[in-house]
Amino acid sequence: MWKLNKACISKLNLKTTGCKAEALSVATLLLENMPNKGLRKFLRAHCDGESLAVADSKLGNVIKEKLQIDCVHNQAVIELMRGVRSQLTELITGLGAQDLAPMSLGLSHSMSRYKLKFSPDKVDTMIIQAIRLLDDLDKELNTYEMRVGEWYGWHFPQLAKIVQDKILYAKAVKSWVCLIVCLDISLSSAQIR
Questions:
Q1: What is the tens place of the pLDDT at every residue in 23-39?
Q2: In angstroms, what CA-CA distances link 143 with 129, 138, 150, 171, 172?
């Protein structure tokens, strides 16, 4: 496990983004292995003639190709990045653990939406609507199950104890209602004659 402190990272220069949209645009550019203008400017100013430890080998290749900066990506770099991530709140003054979790979650949700490239013209919308429809149907079925149990529980309360499954309960109630209607019809026709 790496033990990092501020003295270990001599050229750490952190810039806060102005808003969530700017953070998303910077992160998406990095995902596409394209360093943004601010990163290129920073790297030219601080990494001239030095090797740069990069977590993503593809991004390292792009940086090496475009900026002529030697990049290193190996197991030691991965461990170093893991150490930086684990001690990020100690390395950045003013950043608490309670602030880091919501920021990471918000950015990851935005990144997921970006990766999906959500567009109303695509098939993804139909899948999302189908899932919502299934959720709505599930809620409606639960509501009807509860109503059947309440309505017919007054007439035959033992049935809920006998039949635990809601679908079988509804079928039993349907059969029972049909039986009562048939008996009622046959009794009323017997009285007419």
A1: 777 777 877 778 888 88
A2: 21, 9, 11, 16, 18
The DSSP-derived string for 154-173 is TT-THHHHH--SHHHHHHHH
193, pLDDT greater than 50:
no
CA 118 to chain centre: 14
> Rounded mean pLDDT of 61-77?
88
| Beta carbons within 8 Å of 60's beta carbon, 6+ residues apart | 52, 54, 71, 72, 73
What is the value of pTM for the model shown? 0.48
* Token representation of residue 127: 């899948």
Nearest-angstrom CA–CA distance, 172 and 87: 62
Collapse the DSSP code of 72 into the 3-class scheme (helix H, G, I; strand E, B; otherwise coil) and give the result.
Answer: strand
Q: What is the pLDDT of residue 187?
A: 56
Return the HEC string of 7-71. CCCCCCCCCCCCCHHHHHHHHHHHHCCCCCHHHHHHHHHHCCCCCEECCCHHHHHHHHHHHCCCE
Mean pLDDT confidence for 159-177: 85
> What gap in Å lies between CA 154 and CA 170, rounded to an integer?
14
